[in-house]
Amino acid sequence: FRFDIDCVQVSESKSKDHIPEKMGFASIHSGLMHACGHDGHISIGLGLAQWVSENNHKLCGKIKLIFQAAEEGVRGAKPIAEGGILDDCDYFLSAHIGMGVPTGNVVASPTDLLCTTKMDFFFYGTPAHAGVNPHLGNNALAAACHCATQLLAIPRHGEGMSRINIGTLNAGEGRNIIPSFARMQLEVRGETETINQYMREHALKIAQGISSIFGLRFEYKVVGEATDLHNDPLLVNLIHYIAQEDMNMSLTDKSFGGSEDATILIRRVQKRGGKAAYIILGSDLKAGHHEVDFDFDENVLDTGVELFSLCLERLNSPGLNKIAGNGKLESELY
Question: What does DSSP say about strands 250-251 and 105-107: parallel, antiparallel, or unpaired?
Answer without folding.
Answer: parallel
